[in-house]
Each structure stands twice: as C-alpha cells, then as structure tokens.
Amino acid sequence: MPPQTLEARPGRWLWTCRAGFEPHLFEELAWASAEPRLLGEALVESEGQQELAPAFARQGSRVVASFSDEEPEALATAVAQAVAALPPPAPLVLQAFTPDTPQGNALAAQAEALRDAVRGLLPASRLLEDAERAREAGARLVTLCVAPGVTFVGVVHAREALSLAPGGRRRMRRAGESPSRAAMKLEEALDGLPFEPGRGDVCVDLGAAPGGWTQRLVTRGAKVIAVDPARLMPELASNPRVRHVQESAFAFAPEEPADWLFCDMAWRPLEVAQLLAKWGRRGWASHLVANIKLPMKDKNPILLRVRHTLTEDGGWKGLTVRQLYHDRDEVTVTAHRR
Ligand SMILES: C[S@@+](CC[C@H](N)C(=O)[O-])C[C@H]1O[C@@H](n2cnc3c(N)ncnc32)[C@H](O)[C@@H]1O
Fold this sequence. Notes:
Bound molecules: S-adenosylmethionine
Distance between the termini: 43 Å
Strand order of the largest sheet: 2-3-1-4-7-6-5
Number of helices: 9
Radius of gyration: 21 Å
Strand content: 25-35%
Low-confidence stretches: none
CATH architecture of the largest domain: 2-Layer Sandwich
Number of strands: 14
Order of helices and strands: EHEEEHEHHEEHEHEHEEHEHEE
C-alpha cells in the first residue's frame, strides 16, 4: 500500500472497492490487461476499457482531474472549473464519496461540504438532483472522491455506472426498519436489475433460512418455495405463500419451472455453481440471483470457474458478477435464460 494516496492520471479510470479487496480488484484488472496501479486504500486506477465491469469494484469513473493539498475554497473552485469544462448537454449528477476505510470515513463531512460548495458554483441548469432518474435522463455522474491527501474528480455515464450510489455505497436502511444484512443484500441485488420479481411470480429460494430473502420476496407479492434443511422464521413457516422444503438444495427438483431462482446457500462456490448450472440447463428458472461465498484467499481463479460453469455449462446469459456494498467475502451474480 502506498504510504500516501497517489494522484490518478487524467483519462485513466478510478475504481473504489471494499477495504482489503484491493489485491483482488488489482488482479482482475491486470488479467484484463488494464494496467492497474494501486493508489491507496480502497482505490485502484487502471486503463479504461469498453465493458470493463470488475467484480470487486463498487464504482468506477474516468478521471478528469485530481488535486492535492488545496485549501477548501480553492479546491471547490478548481473542481467546479473541471466539472464546468465537461462537454454539454448531458445533465450532471454531482456525488461525493470517500474511500470506505476508517481514514476515508473521517473525511465524510469534508466530502459533503466540497460537493455542496461545487454545486453552488455551477449553473443549476446543468445539474440533476435525483440520482435515481440519472439513467433515464441520459445523465453523467460526476464523482468527487475525497481521499486522504488527494481529491479526485471522475465522470461516468449513468447507464454504464456500476452503481448510482456515491462510491457504490448503497445504504438501505429506511426509517423504522431493521432488515437483516441478508435482506439488504437481496434488495441491493434487485436494485441493479431492469425488472424485479412481483405479484404471482414463483420464486425458488435455495438456502432460504432463516428467511430474510423469502420475506422480501413474499412482501413483493411472490410465491416462494424455500429450500433449506434449517428452520424458517415462524411467521414465514405459516405463511400461505411460502412452501418450506426442508431438505438439501442438491436433492431438490421443482415440479414445474419457476420464474426466479434465488440462492444464498452457505456452501462451496464451485458446487453451488454446478447446481445453478443444472437449473439453467434444465430450464428450471428464467432469472437467477445468487450470492456466491468466497472465503478463500485466491478468489479470482474460483470466480473465473464460477463464470465459466454458469455460462458454458448452464447456458445462463447476461451474467453480472459484483461484490455489492452489503457483500462481505462474497459476490452477487445475476443472469437470465433468454
Ligand atoms: C446465509 S444463510 C441464508 C440466509 C437467507 N438468505 C436469509 O435471508 O435469511 C445460508 C443458508 O444456507 C443453508 N444451506 C447450506 N447448505 C445447504 C444445502 N445443501 N441446501 C440448502 N440450504 C443449505 C444453511 O442452512 C443456511 O440457512
């Protein structure tokens, strides 16, 4: 790790990841011949390439400028100038984030103050406030990354962005709610899809217990076949829209094809991938959302085999593989059959 955050080279891409996962992100980028360089904790720089979507990146943007050792006022002016020079007419969504590390998180207030100061220096007509509308509005995300000693300005088309949340840090908690981390993983995964399971859809949930995912799916109006040898929460066990099959997912076969296959089984990734490939080959589900556990040190070689198994053996298409904000030693996979 460099002793101090390094400045990024304009035109290259700045990626941010979960702290501690820099080596995995670096390796992925190196395997893609994208010439990575470690800039600091949770920050890696690389060449930009079409359709580069590293699994271990939470967000990526093309570097427009980076600044070090500037006073806040001069920094805001310099950043605003760099942003104002971006070619019109796409509306801009201004976002600020810090690397997700103790040192980075201590800069959160500074990052927000910079974003507000820059916003005040730009014509309101160029800005879009609602990031949720960024894709449909054809907007670009302007990402201000405030790291220890360096501030980066990046830009990415919202339609190509890995996430619409600042730095890919998708916070889910809503007022009065205390969803489990498992439930938040599912919500974040569904967020990234063009459509979601809804009323009347049949979902199979492999590794369902204690039931965070099943609960969320039922709330959306779906019917759920929850497969897990372990027990479900009592309120789910008695829910008429839930059928609990208390056996191993490896022994289970659906009576008829499901709309969605969900899987959050705590099991070996290659064996889970083979099981999901079987579901794909047999046409047992149309859509897939699966959380793949990666507790091993060497994660990328396993991920490569998981991808290969799902696509080549399973026929799953449109595969995305991402370590989401709520994922720890794991990644979330989405795919579809047609
Ligand atoms: C992380 S938990 C799932 C959490 C769940 N998604 C939720 O939201 O509550 C992992 C589950 O995988 C289940 N599991 C492990 N091996 C399994 C197998 N062979 N078949 C079915 N479930 C399995 C475990 O019993 C455990 O309940």
